[in-house]
């Protein structure tokens, strides 16, 4: 328990320093949350370029607005909220764009995820966006129902009912034995 307490104090110290303009402290915070940021963005967006854009926009906004963060202990929640808003903005833009050729594949660098072919990942990706986001935040990022409620601006009861609905859909897709 002491290690966790020490880790939280250290992170809060880093947040405090970052809010005061310490660029190294901000970079340390981003480094600590790097994998979480990527997984959430990847859970929402399918295109790797969109994921990179969302992360880049999130980091810029977070850097510019870190002084607005009221409670240092909610840095991760605050950062993920910015990321989700950026992902949703990219999704809205993509819906407005009309593809001239649907058959053109991704050009350039392609990220290969060894877990991409797993049944569970495919099942999660087949869920509606709102359920996919909840599953990603709750199970992969280990964010509490209360924090998810705050991030998504919905009630705790709504989070719980959507998680329940997502679990039922995943059971149907994967089968009871999974």
UniProtKB/TrEMBL annotation:
One of its GO terms (biological process) is DNA-templated transcription initiation. Residues 119-170 form the RNA polymerase sigma factor 70 region 4 type domain. Keywords: Sigma factor, Transcription, Transcription regulation. Residues 29-96 form the RNA polymerase sigma-70 region domain. CDD domains: Sigma70_r4. PANTHER family: RNA POLYMERASE ECF-TYPE SIGMA FACTO (PTHR43133), RNA POLYMERASE SIGMA FACTOR (PTHR43133:SF51). This is RNA polymerase sigma-70 factor, ECF subfamily. It comes from Sporanaerobacter acetigenes DSM 13106.
